[in-house]
Design goal:
The chain is of the alpha+beta class. 51% of the residues lie in helices and 11% in strands. The chain has two domains: 123 residues; 179 residues, Transferase(Phosphotransferase) domain 1 (Transferase(Phosphotransferase), domain 1), CATH 1.10.510.10. Helix 3 packs antiparallel against helix 4 and helix 5 packs across helix 6.
Length: 360
C-alpha cells in the first residue's frame, strides 16, 4: 500500500481553533483564565505542569515532521508559528498556575538569549499584564481581611483589576469621603499554599541531584528563593519595606515611593497611593528623546544605589513592571515585597565594586 506524504502531513494534529493573531489569542486567554481558581495540591499542580510540557513538546514534534518536507522559507515561517503557539500555551499555563511557576516565567522573560524571542515577549507580559482573576473570587478574602466589602470601605472601587501578577492583582479606588485615589493590592486565595506545593514538587524532581557535589549549593539557592516568595505573600512586611524606602527620598526629588495606608492594609491586602503613569513599554512607545531616556536611566540607578547605601535595603526584584514613568516626569517605584536587608559587609563589598559617588 502506497503512502501519500501530503495526506500524512495534513493529518497531523493541528489546533483548528487557533486564532488568526497572537493578540486575539491573548485576549481569549485572559477571558478564559479570569474565571478559574488557582489550582492547589502538589499532585494536581504537577499534573497540570506536566500536561503543559507535553502539549508544547507535541507542537514542536509536529513542526519537526512537517519541516522535513518543506523548503527553507516555509520551514522558518513554521518554526516562528510554532514558537508563537508554544509561547501562548506556556503563558496560559503559567498564568493559570500563578505563584512560583509564574515567577519562573517572569525570570525567563528577563533572559531573551535563553528562550526564543516569542517566549520572552509573551512571558514578559507576566510582569504587569498577567490575566486578572475575576473579582468575585477575591471578594470573600477582602471581607475576611478588612471586615467589609470593598464598596463599603472605599468610594468608586473598580472591580476590574488594572494590574495583575503572580501573587495578586491591583484595583483602583478612592478613599471614602476624599478625592484621594489609591491602589488596592489583593492576594489571590490560597496562593501561599501553592508556593509550598510547587517547592515540594521541585524538591521531588531534583531528588537525584542529592548525590551530586552541587546539591548543597543548589539546596541553599532553592531555600533562598522559597524564603523570598514567602516574604512576598506577607503584605505587612511589604508595607514596612515601603515605609522604610520612602525615607530615602525627599518630597522635592524625582523619585516617588507610594504611601501606605495601614488602616486599610493587612497581611493579604495592601493599600497605597495610586501613581499616575505608564510602564516601560508604553513609555518607550512614545519615542522619548535620548536625553530623557538617559535621565530616567540615571534615576533608576540612583534609586537602587540610594536604597542600598543609605538605607541598607536592596530591592531584589527590579523588573520593568516595578517602575512607573509618571505623567509629571518623575520615576515611581512599586512592589517592595521582595527586598533584602543588607549587612555592613554587603555595603562594603558594593562600595568597592559599584562606586556610588559617580551618581551623586
Amino acid at each position: 500500500m502506497s503512502v501519500n506524504i501530503n495526506e500524512l502531513i495534513n493529518s497531523l494534529p493541528i489546533d483548528d481553533d487557533r486564532p488568526e493573531s497572537p493578540q486575539l489569542a491573548l485576549q481569549q486567554l485572559i477571558q478564559k483564565l479570569g474565571s478559574k481558581k488557582v489550582p492547589v495540591g502538589a499532585l494536581n499542580r504537577l499534573w497540570i505542569l506536566g500536561t503543559l510540557q507535553a502539549k508544547i513538546a507535541a507542537a514542536y514534534l509536529v513542526h519537526w515532521v512537517r519541516s522535513s518536507f518543506s523548503g527553507l522559507d516555509t520551514k522558518e515561517m513554521r518554526l516562528n508559528e510554532t514558537h508563537l503557539k508554544a509561547a501562548v500555551k506556556l503563558l496560559g499555563g503559567m498564568s493559570y498556575l500563578r505563584g512560583a511557576v509564574m515567577k519562573v516565567g517572569q525570570i525567563l522573560a528577563s533572559y531573551p538569549d535563553v528562550v526564543p524571542e516569542q517566549f520572552a515577549d509573551a512571558l514578559g507580559r507576566l510582569h504587569f499584564e498577567a490575566p486578572p482573576m475575576h473579582f468575585s473570587m477575591l471578594r470573600e478574602l477582602f471581607r475576611k481581611e478588612l471586615g467589609a466589602a470593598p464598596d463599603e470601605i472605599f468610594d468608586d472601587f473598580e472591580t476590574e483589576a488594572f494590574a495583575a501578577a503572580s501573587l495578586g492583582q491591583v484595583h483602583r479606588a478612592r478613599i471614602k469621603g476624599t478625592d484621594k485615589r489609591v491602589a488596592v493590592k489583593i492576594q489571590y486565595p490560597n496562593i501561599a499554599r501553592t508556593i509550598r506545593d510547587d517547592f515540594r514538587n521541585m524538591q521531588a524532581l531534583l531528588f537525584p541531584m542529592r548525590l551530586s557535589s552541587d546539591w548543597e549549593n543548589l539546596r541553599e539557592q532553592f531555600g533562598e528563593i522559597r524564603r523570598m516568595l514567602d516574604l512576598e505573600v506577607d503584605y505587612e512586611q511589604e508595607a514596612r519595606h515601603l515605609r522604610a524606602a520612602s525615607g530615602a527620598f525627599g518630597d522635592d526629588e524625582e523619585i516617588v515611593i507610594p504611601r501606605v495606608y495601614p488602616e486599610l492594609s493587612t497581611k493579604r491586602v495592601l493599600t497605597t497611593d495610586y501613581l499616575e503613569g505608564v510602564h516601560l513599554h508604553d513609555y518607550l512607545s512614545t519615542k522619548p528623546a535620548q536625553a530623557e531616556r538617559d535621565r530616567y536611566g540615571r534615576l533608576i540607578l540612583l534609586s537602587s544605589f540610594r536604597l542600598s547605601y543609605s538605607h541598607k535595603l536592596l530591592h531584589a526584584d527590579p523588573h520593568p513592571g516595578n517602575y512607573f514613568f509618571l505623567n509629571d516626569g518623575r520615576l515611581g517605584l512599586i512592589d517592595f515585597g521582595c527586598c533584602v536587608a543588607l549587612t555592613d559587609e554587603d555595603i562594603d563589598y558594593m562600595a568597592e565594586h559599584f562606586p556610588y559617588k559617580s551618581l551623586q
